[in-house]
Design goal:
Pyridoxamine 5'-phosphate oxidase family protein; 142 residues; elongated; Pnp Oxidase, Chain A; alpha+beta
Length: 142
């Protein structure tokens, strides 16, 4: 198997469809010069990622530096897929903004109160699929 058939880029709407089919992602950001990553459950609202959070580190990170990265991935027996979204996060501040979002499917997975709604306005999205197979020989016999 060569690299061209083992790794393929998602094209067209494929990365958005992949993100829409999942509900768990990882939020990456820099907080006080330290890289941080957080698992979050989310919904896709148009071309925006939406999640809820309690007061704490994630919310502080969004308020200090809006630049974030978000990853949605999947692994199964045959391969894996990963979509990376980059953008700017912001806390929803008004009831009017909140009412524009369809949050019926956004539920907390853990029994904690999460009053803050955060939206990631996506500026870039890329996705790749990885097909598993045997590892190539490092030093093929000539």
């Amino acid at each position: 198997m060569d690299i061209d058939s083992a790794i393929t880029d998602m094209t067209g709407n494929e990365p958005w469809d992949f993100v829409a089919d999942h509900t768990l992602g990882r939020l990456g950001m820099t907080i006080l010069d330290q890289p941080e990553i957080f698992p979050v459950n989310y919904v896709l609202a148009g071309r925006q990622i939406v999640f809820r959070t309690a007061e704490g580190t994630k919310l502080m990170g969004v308020l200090l530096d809006r630049h974030v990265v978000f990853e949605v991935d999947e692994v199964n027996a045959d391969g894996a897929a990963s979509v990376i979204l980059k953008g700017k996060a912001r806390k929803i501040e008004t009831q009017a903004e909140l009412e524009k979002l369809d949050l019926d499917d956004l539920h907390s997975w853990v029994p904690t109160m999460k009053y803050n709604v955060v939206v990631i306005d996506v500026t870039e999205i890329t996705g790749r699929r990885f097909r598993f197979g045997p590892e190539p020989e490092l030093f093929p016999v000539m």
